[in-house]
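HUMAN: Quick job: go over this next protein and say how the chain folds.
***
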Amino acid sequence: MLILLPPSEGKSVPSRGAALDLSGLALPELTHARREVLDALVTLCRDDPAKAAEVLGLSAGQVDLVDRNADLPSAPTARADRIYTGVLYDALDVATLSPAAKRRATSRVAVASSLFGMVRFGDRIPSYRLSGDASLPHLGPVAAVWREALPPVMTAALGRGLLVDLRSGMYANFWKPGPELAPRVATVRVLHEHNGTRKVVSHFNKATKGRIVRALLEDGADPRTPAALADVLGRLGWTVETASGKSGTQLDIVVSEL
């Protein structure tokens, strides 16, 4: 099973740690593309901070993020599961997982990244700012870079397992599994039900996804099909509805309270 998560916009900033070593990251086949995106981002932020703030969609109070990006090659790094923060990662709370669940997290979870394409929790990365819809000078849209680089790498990483896709739409565009993988693709959506009406609510969506991943890692089950995953989630206490399509199976998790 391979669980894909979105990154967080906010990130913790390590105060110390080794500098970034691209060759040491998981999925080394992405090193060339990672170097291209990193070089384009650092060059922009060093040479034209005003343009960088515009490209990165930063407000006047966020200009320090431009300086942080400019220093990425020498910035301290930490494990990715300590860099990414926010509602989903707070609910997942990797630090308090059992030892067995932490081992599963290292091998079963990957995080979509505008800068690195995809990272594992054990990868050491710096804090950075780069949105999935950004377009960098002399490189173009970062999404296009990853749409080219990720497909063969992620197909190989998935192997014969089940893909559990919890990415948001922007990051799902980095890699869309081909139709040959559809029988092993489960896309998870969280719906908040209130007074008979269902809708996607960002906070419920993120928090519930974090709790789902935590529960799966602690449980240890390794379902091989979307139907088997739905059964596991039902056993773990969630209300699950499924709908199959050409690109895979959508699992709707219906919640009434956080």
Remarks:
- Residues 2-255 form one domain.
